[in-house]
């Protein structure tokens, strides 16, 4: 990768999981951000259905007491990536080679 953007590790992992059809925290996060990620030039395979609910369910299954705060933290990382990608003045596909 050329430049690391905040949250890039999660986005990259989510893209890999989506391409393999794996439902994971990163894949669900990428699915949540699919519309905006597409706008910054990221080519996505099919997003997972109901990603917001599935992500929360997955987090709650692991630790119900911290699910809400972890969900919010993950969404903040997604938004940070989206904003940084928009401000970076280059296409995300240049980073990911899409």
| Number of distinct helices | 6
Mean pLDDT over the residues: 89
Separation of termini?
12 Å
In terms of structural class, how would the helical and strand content be classed? Answer: mainly alpha
Question: What is the number of E strands?
Answer: 0
Percent of residues in helices: 55-70%
Report the C-alpha radius of gyration, rounded.
13 Å
H/E element sequence: HHHHHH
Overall spatial form: globular
Strand content: under 5%
Largest sheet: none
- Low-confidence regions: none
User: Structurally, how many domains make up the residues?
Assistant: 1
Describe the structure.
- The chain has 98 residues and is mainly α.
- The protein has one domain.
- The protein is built from six helices and no strands.
- The chain has helices at 8-20, 25-32, 34-39, 51-62, 67-87, 92-96.
- The longest helix has 21 residues, at 67-87.
- The protein is globular, with a radius of gyration of 13 Å.
- 27% of the residues are buried.
- The model has no long low-confidence stretch (mean pLDDT 89).
